[in-house]
Write a structure and sequence with these properties.
Nucleotidyltransferase, domain 5; 3-stranded antiparallel beta sheet
């Protein structure tokens, strides 16, 4: 078990030359050109966004966030899949300090591009100092939340005339975020999660009480 908060792996502290990154992808990001320009918010007036638009294509964004530094590495692709994800991993593993690190732990969900034992064998076979760590199934919310920040800060409202301007906005924000980012300070710790899971298990194993009989009128 990898403990991000205390930098532990299987109960042992990570060394300074060991790193933890979370990788995620946002698929099918559309470039929607509004038929009337978006108007920024002003005094006593909300932003004005035209609801009609024309589709100008879509792309995928893949990113890896160093949990403790933090360092952000991302790329845009025409679509998601095994090959685009492997290119993101290569982009990470060819950069310092990761290429010369003792171990690099890469946390992923169970998306099709990096699912199961085959993905572990593929990526760890290619990068001997890489350790691919899968989140529990249906628990992708445990991963880092950078893509949700990107959604709120850049992609809302979605008003881009073409894919080039959409990609430029995403990568410009990536560079800006890498300059200002601080590690997330989680208030919901691993101990909190274990207590919650134990409580749920107890509640699901308790026998059901019979419903009280309704009294006749």
């Amino acid at each position: 078990m990898l403990d991000l908060y205390q930098r532990l792996f299987e109960g042992r502290p990570l060394r300074p030359d060991e790193y933890v990154l979370c990788a995620d992808e946002k698929t099918s990001i559309q470039a929607r050109e509004r038929i009337h320009p978006t108007v920024a918010a002003g005094p006593a007036r909300p932003a004005l966004v035209e609801h009609e638009y024309e589709r100008r294509g879509a792309l995928a964004y893949l990113a890896a966030l160093d949990v403790h530094r933090p360092q952000l590495i991302g790329r845009c692709e025409e679509k998601s899949g095994i090959a685009p994800f492997d290119r993101l991993v290569e982009q990470v593993m060819r950069e310092e300090p990761y290429c010369s690190a003792r171990r690099v732990f890469l946390i992923v969900d169970n998306g099709s591009a990096h699912r199961g034992q085959k993905s572990i064998e593929r990526l760890e076979g290619r990068w001997p100092n890489l350790r691919l760590i899968h989140l529990p199934i249906h628990a992708s919310w445990l991963n880092q939340i950078y893509v949700s920040i990107l959604q709120r800060k850049v992609l809302q409202p979605n008003d881009f005339p073409d894919l080039a301007s959409l990609e430029r906005a995403i990568l410009d924000f990536e560079r800006y975020y890498a300059e200002i980012a601080q590690p997330f300070e989680w208030r919901f710790t691993r101990a909190d999660l274990n207590r919650l899971l134990a409580r749920i298990e107890i509640e699901h194993t308790m026998p059901l009480r019979p419903a009280p009989l309704a009294l006749a009128a």
